[in-house]
Amino acid sequence: HGLTKHFTANRGFLQRAAAPVRAVDDVSLTVRRGETLALVGESGSGKSTLGRLLLNLLEPTAGDVIYEGRNLGNLSAQELRKVRQDLQIIFQDPFASLNPRMNVQRIVGEPIWLHDAAARSEREDRVAELLRTVGLAPEHAERYPHEFSGGQRQRIGIARALASRPKLLLGDEPVSALDVSVQAQVVNLLEDLKQQFGLTLVIVAHGLAVIRHMSDRVAVMYLGEIVELAPVDALFEQPLHPYTQALIDSVPVSHPKDRRERQVLGGDMPSPSAPPPGCRFHTRCPHARPLCRENQPVFERLPDDRQVACHFWREIASAGSGSPIVVT
Ligand code: SF4
Ligand code: MG
């Protein structure tokens, strides 16, 4: 699609055990080249699943993923291997995702070796270069994952993801397993790499705090659907969907005296295998009315590059934020 990466994943019903879990349900989303797009939601919202569908790590039950104008479902195995090099993932837990019996040379060099018939010495040079790129030393190549800190292991995972010269990196909660002091370093590294290599980033996160300063757009997910999609500043300044408002109110306030009275968002998230009818958020929404239980709101396209799925977003927005609600 020229300057656009167009991904659409419609009706991805994942078969799990007996009941189908509608982890991602009829979602349409375009990832734009060069942007940082955040997928945000509680656990069970389908954000990781959507990310994996986009990368073709999972096959959609229905719907299509279009990458650079090509439907990934129609590609040959060989073409798909090439596309997979373009689309790489960084996992949440850097320790679990690295083979403990492989040294860093093998971990980082394996994708090069798989995709490239480069000579051994060239591969070693390339691994050394990748390690420097992510802020590690070439000498680290001989060591094993257990010899590194969590932040360093995440850097190794990033170096491995970069080895096949990807165009898009998906970070599945890339910093949530790390100490708070290390999180900012890894976020800064990802932003530097994005600039340096012209990457597109998709960041999966369960809260808004981490992604606020690194995203261009945010897609808020609830029970397998995107309920709001907006440029990051607009989303924080004027969240339109009640669920987005709740997520923003759950971000810790830095100045305690500004703290508004908070209302706890009632109830747990319903099971994705039996989502509520109508608006899926109605069981927890403080603004819910009878219509919300019956009719599913459309994902309405608004000016200013925003989309929202709520019957009453106009009234809610014009009435001000009302009583703030908090997701616990
Ligand atoms: Fe709340 Fe109704 Fe809007 Fe759903 S459609 S978010 S229940 S007001
Ligand atoms: Mg997850």
Q: Structural class, from secondary structure content?
A: alpha/beta
Low-confidence stretches: 1-19, 255-261
- Please outline the major beta sheet: 8 strands, mixed
Strand content: 15-25%
Number of helices in the DSSP assignment: 10
Small ligands present: iron/sulfur cluster, magnesium ion
Examine the secondary-structure arrangement and name the CATH architecture of the largest domain. Answer: 3-Layer(aba) Sandwich
What distance separates the N and C termini?
41 Å
Characteristic key phrases:
binds magnesium ion, 10 helices, single chain, alpha/beta, 18 strands, 30% helix, two-stranded antiparallel ribbon, binds iron/sulfur cluster, 328 residues, Rossmann fold, disordered N terminus
At a glance:
The protein is α/β, with parallel strands linked by helices. It has 2 domains: 4-215, 3-Layer(aba) Sandwich (Rossmann fold), CATH 3.40.50; 238-326, no CATH class. Helix content is 30%, strand content 20%.
Describe the structure.
There is one protein chain. Helix content is 30%, strand content 20%. It contains 10 helices and 18 strands. The longest helix is centred in the middle third of the chain and has 18 residues, at 180-197. It has helices spanning 47-54, 77-86, 104-115, 120-133, 150-162, 180-197, 232-237, 242-249, 290-294, 313-318, and strands at 4-5, 8-9, 12-15, 20-24, 27-28, 31-32, 36-40, 66-67, 70-71, 87-90, 168-172, 200-205, 217-222, 225-231, 263-264, 300-302, 306-308, 325-326. The model is unreliable at 1-19 and 255-261 (pLDDT under 50). It is elongated and about 70 Å long. An 8-stranded mixed sheet has the order 10-11-12-7-13-14-17-16, with helices on both faces. Strands 1-6 form a two-stranded antiparallel sheet. It has a two-stranded antiparallel sheet with strand order 2-5. The protein is of the alpha/beta class and 328 residues long. Helix 3 (104-115) crosses helix 4 (120-133), helix 3 runs parallel beside helix 5 and helix 4 packs across helix 5 (150-162). The chain has 2 domains: 4-215, P-loop containing nucleotide triphosphate hydrolases (Rossmann fold, 3-Layer(aba) Sandwich); 238-326, no CATH class. It binds iron/sulfur cluster and magnesium ion. The site of iron/sulfur cluster has 13 residues, from loops. Residues 241-242, 279, 281-282, 285, 287-288, 292, 297, 310-312 line the site of iron/sulfur cluster (SF4).
